[in-house]
Each structure stands twice: as structure tokens, then as C-alpha cells.
Design a protein that fits this description.
The chain is mainly α.
Length: 109
């Protein structure tokens, strides 16, 4: 039986995935931890936009900042998040293989 806690937890995850930039950040961090300047360049956004999205993802409990001297490295808060993203992506493609027309040439979503 679903509880309010379950509903809130999934709503937070859904909120994080509802924005393409936040989704790209999560998918990037699924591959490896990264520094904000590197992530901003890799996903093609300004540092300020990235910072705002990272704050949202931290608030959702999905990413953490690991201090390293004067810099912070970002990573997924739990390894299971990477597995959940992989499973969710596989499920979406299994249910609707046409969801991403460019998937064959560029990688999905």
C-alpha cells in the first residue's frame, strides 16, 4: 500500500526528472562524479543555470556535493539512483520505443 512517504519520494524524483537540464545532470553523474565547471561545459549551460539545478537536485536528495579543497565535486547521493535511472530509461524505451526518434544516431533522451 502506498503511503504519503512513498508518494512524496516519487514526486521528488519526478520533479527532478521533469526538467531536461536536471535530467542531463543526473545522467551525466550516473556515468561519473564531476565538477560544476566540467558539467556546465559538457551539457551546454551556464555555470549559474547549472548551480540552480544542482541546488534543486540537492534539495531533492538526489545529489551531494563533496568538498575537495576550494572546489566541490558532485555525485549521485546513492548508487541506487544510477540503477533506477538505467531501469527507468529501459522501461520507457520498452514501453514506447518511438519516444526518441534520434535514439538510433545520438543516444536516447
Amino acid at each position: 500500500m502506498a503511503t504519503a512517504l512513498h508518494t512524496d519520494a516519487l514526486a521528488r524524483f519526478g520533479h527532478a526528472l521533469s526538467d531536461p537540464t536536471r535530467t542531463r545532470i543526473l545522467l551525466s553523474l550516473r556515468e561519473a562524479p564531476s565538477y560544476p565547471s566540467e558539467m556546465a561545459e559538457r551539457i551546454g549551460v551556464t555555470r549559474q543555470i547549472l548551480s540552480n539545478h544542482l541546488a534543486c537536485l540537492r534539495g531533492c536528495g538526489l545529489v551531494v556535493a563533496v568538498p575537495e579543497g576550494r572546489r566541490s565535486r558532485y555525485e549521485l547521493a546513492d548508487a541506487r539512483i544510477a540503477a533506477a535511472l538505467e531501469d527507468l530509461l529501459g522501461l520507457v524505451l520498452a514501453v514506447d520505443p518511438t519516444c526518441c526518434p534520434a535514439a538510433d544516431s545520438e543516444g536516447c533522451c
